[in-house]
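Q: I'm a student working through a structural biology exercise. My instructor gave each of us a protein and asked us to get a predicted structure, then write a short paragraph describing it. Mine is Cilia- and flagella-associated protein 77. I'm not confident about reading structure output yet, so if you can add a plain explanation after the tokens, that would really help. Here is the sequence I was given:
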Amino acid sequence: MAAQVEGPFNYTATGVLGDQRNSMLQNELHLRDKVGHIKSRGYQLPMQSFVYGLPNEKREYSAADALASWKLSHYSLNSDPALRGWTGNYLPKGGASKTKAASERDFMTMNKAAVADGLVTTEETNDYRATHDIRRSPWNRKELSGKMRSRRLPPTMVFGIPSRPSTPIYEVIEHKYQDQWMKERQNLLSNKRAEEVKRRVMSAPVAGRSNGIVYETRASLLRTYQNPVDPAPLWQLPRFTKSAKAQIQSFRTNTDKSASFNYLKTDRVGRQGDFGIGIYEKPKN
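A: Happy to help. First, here is the predicted structure for Cilia- and flagella-associated protein 77. I'll explain a few features afterward.
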């Protein structure tokens, strides 16, 4: 049996969805999968002779290349007028560019030419730029994409977001967190009930109190009393401990300050109530 010649329509729905036509090769519904091969989707791949990657450029490790990583091998004295030196033509052939608004100064070319001529100081470089007005077209997207593609990243860089910590599955299965929450709630409710019972007993008259209850006396309160401790102050920079203080004083003297607080204390009745008009007398029906 003669081997069947493989053609472009061997893996299409020919005879099922119509005759052979070129639209079948681009329609996903008309294509059939190859056994043992992945599906080919997206853009068409280039020919088999296409080589992927970037070309390896030959570099000459000269003084200019070592100082500023400038590739002077791409510029020859005959091709670029700026590399001819001070005795040659200072400007490109035809004079300065007339479309300065649509172009920009090529500082890279001017710097390379200045280094090639032995001009390294700031004054010499400025004079060279003033006499060699070399311009170029603005950067396009291809050049920008090439620059970004050549950027080197550290080998230890990891892309993405950090993953969350692993779930303690054994503690979740045994309902540890649920039991802990229930115990805390039970302790809180029991403490509230004990405080409520104690408050009711203490508020009851002496004759109605049951025996066996220990009441707090002055001696017991003094024995269990603890002096209040001021909380630790908030941390602040050492250089601001002395300088960062209030610079504005609302009262001229301490006497004025105490008098103001005394007046505030005596006049607080007039600022109470629902509407801030005082509670001097009870409401009348």
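A: Here are two points you could use in your paragraph. Strands lie at 104-105, 135-136. The first helix runs from residue 63 to 68. It's a good idea to check both against the output above yourself.
Q: Great, thank you!
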